[in-house]
Automatic annotation (TrEMBL):
GO biological process terms on file: carbohydrate derivative metabolic process
InterPro entries in the record: Homeodomain-like_sf, HTH_RpiR, RpiR-like, RpiR-like_SIS, SIS_dom, SIS_dom_sf, WH-like_DNA-bd_sf
Domain SIS: 125-266
Species, as recorded: Longibaculum muris
Transcription in keyword set: yes
Record-given protein name: RpiR family transcriptional regulator
Keyword terms of this UniProt record: DNA-binding, Transcription, Transcription regulation
Residues covered by the HTH rpiR-type domain: 1-76
Length: 285
């Protein structure tokens, strides 16, 4: 997860630290030129509080924090000409512009995902999934709905994919995993508590794991052998919807499906066509 997203979530921050985080988010470029004393004056806090916040974010000190902040700002600036992934329209946008903006956002999310996708991690992920007798998927809310589409496609080529819809069921699913299983864990932030709990159980059971998550360091990435990065331009809370990340997750699942299909192309095609014919209720002449 990027530094800016960590500041937005403000997990386990004190009220003073939240005040500092909010100021940095609203004045990020200015902060690059401020000392701890100057930032403390502007946020009505203290240099010691700023240093503690930097250390809480896993930096040695304020200078290291500013180096990372600068890199995050450059990432945001590099997408200035792109559609705003958080607010692709507002209350004054007419329907023609909404249509064009959403279509452009789809295209940009696909391009961004392809740029972030590590080809070696993808190749190794496909090897893990191919060897696994069962693929278990973990996530909450929207990602699980997208995972269901992947599950449906995989069933049609004879690959067992399991998804427990309830959080507690997912933890039981993780606890009952066998060594011939492989897990895919999906979390945009990489900090979703329920997904992290599942990852902890899977790690104890030595189940190989693949993360689908946003760019940057996060808890989920640390648990998984391979990481497939999503379009990471969305904020955690301040947005209209998860349009870009939804497209990105769909794309990654479809790439995994296609990669596995291609490994056993003739057999997979035969299995799918035979299944389709069996469940097709239309009368044949």
């Amino acid at each position: 997860m990027s530094l800016l997203k960590k500041l937005e979530i403000a997990e386990n921050f004190s009220e003073s630290e939240k005040s500092i985080a909010q100021y940095i988010l609203q004045n990020s470029e200015e902060v690059l030129n401020l000392s701890t004393i100057e930032l403390a004056k502007k946020t009505y806090t203290s240099p010691a509080t700023i240093t503690r916040l930097c250390q809480k974010l896993d930096f040695k000190g304020y200078n290291d924090f500013k180096i990372s902040l600068s890199a995050n700002i450059q990432y945001v600036l590099s997408h200035q000409d792109s559609i705003n992934a958080n607010f692709p329209f507002d209350k004054n946008t007419n329907i023609t512009h909404i249509v064009n903006n959403i279509a452009k956002l789809f295209k940009e999310s696909i391009d961004e995902t392809m740029q972030l996708l590590n080809q070696e991690d993808l190749r190794q992920s496909l090897i893990l999934l191919d060897k696994a007798q069962v693929i278990d998927i973990y996530g909450v809310s929207g990602p699980l709905r997208m995972a269901s589409d992947f599950q449906y496609k995989m069933f049609r080529i004879g690959k067992d994919v399991q998804i427990a819809p309830m959080v507690n069921e997912q933890l039981f699913q993780a606890a009952r995993c066998q060594k011939d299983h492989c897990a895919i864990l999906v979390s945009y932030s990489g900090e979703t508590e329920e997904v992290i709990k599942a990852a902890q159980i899977l790690k104890r059971k030595k189940i190989p794991m693949i993360a689908i998550t946003s760019l940057g360091d996060n808890k989920l990435s640390a648990y998984c052998q391979y990481v497939l990065h999503l379009d990471s331009r969305e904020q955690i809370y301040n947005k209209i919807s998860t349009i870009g990340s939804t497209i990105s997750i769909h794309l990654i699942f479809d790439i995994l499906y296609a990669g596995l299909f291609s490994k056993h192309f003739d057999e997979a095609l035969k299995t799918k066509v035979e299944a389709d014919k069996l469940i097709d209720h239309r009368e044949r002449k």
